[in-house]
Amino acid sequence: MSYFVGWKYGVLVGGFVGTILLATYPIIISPMINPDKWKRIQEDTRKNIKQEDIQPGNMKVWTDPFDRKKSTDEAK
């Protein structure tokens, strides 16, 4: 029984890493580098949708949860 030793082991590990990187490039890396294409696709598919009409449970549309209301008593 022969084990992968030396350069053969390096080729095996490099092949696995290369395959994973090759598979993740169009899914993860490409949209991060050039998001304009994906923004255009979203604009085209969502142009006739009003978010207020499809919001479940009559909930309001997303707002920033960390946006604090300014109080008039800040000087005290």
TrEMBL record:
Keywords, sorted A to Z: Membrane, Transmembrane, Transmembrane helix
Any Pfam family hit: MITRAC7_Phoenixin
Species whose genome carries this gene: Dendroctonus ponderosae (Mountain pine beetle)
Chain residue ranges for the region called Disordered: 52-76
GO cellular-component term (any): mitochondrial inner membrane
Record's protein name: Small integral membrane protein 20
PANTHER family named in the record: SMALL INTEGRAL MEMBRANE PROTEIN 20
InterPro entries, alphabetized: MITRAC7/Phoenixin (IPR027917)
Transmembrane segments: 6-29
Swiss-Prot/TrEMBL GO biological process terms: mitochondrial respiratory chain complex IV assembly
Biased amino acid composition, Basic and acidic residues: 65-76
